[in-house]
Amino acid sequence: MDAICVGKTWDVLLVEEKGEMLGALPYLWVRKGFLKMILQPIFSQNNGVHFFYPEGLDEAGKEAFERRVCEDILAQLKALKVDWFLQHFDPTFRQCALFEEAGYQVSERVTYIIPDISDPKELFKRFTASKQRHIRKAERNGLQVGWDMDVSSFYDFHSETLRLRGRTNFNSRLLEETVCRRAIERGQGRIISVHDVEGNLHSALFFVWDAHAAYYLIPAIHSTFKSSGASTLMVWRALQFLQGKTKAFDFEGSMDPQIANSYKQFATEKRIYRQVEKTDSVICRMYKRLKNLS
Q: Is residue 128 in a domain?
């Protein structure tokens, strides 16, 4: 949270009993004038409630425990009088109905995951023929993979690729570089880049991982070279690099059908997670409505 909320304020709601930690809800705290907001931090797919189960609980006991923790969390949120709450909850979270009863809106979001990356040869066979051709084309044309791109150069390249598509990088340099640098320093993040024999940079990717999964966190693809196969080669080499380091690969989802279609071609499975939201401020509701109309 220190990295993904750099320059901002984060806090955590705690549920404790007799000195024992039962649950926690970390959150990004945003103040705009007199408005108070709890929002989903960028570069974090899910926040939500974390449970610290007592030993010996069966599934029914765990579910009852979760409900008790969430009731306490909801009471604390009510006391905060937040104008806008927006967080993404883990796919395993099963107390959505409790939040709905409290007036929160729960909707589905999608991510695409390769659940098992342990066998590269078998994985490559499961890619679509199109993705396999992209990789072979990139290799045949002499595209080279690099691992030494510094975080400042990565930020500049990422910003430039967005500019070429008529978009703006809304991540501050401080935020993006801090997230990249800290993950790399912890040995849980890398930047991979792909360039041609003339030195043209085609694509780059910052990805992170833990013991459970790796995450396709910040891709940057140069529009001039989007058909070179570099972006597919980049994913393939990242998957090979991750052998023995983690179990799965998460493309971090997309609600854009075209991007989602590309992810599906990497032998992925669709996973649903939840967006939990409540807007108690008329001003916040008007702001959201204007954004949806733009």
A: yes
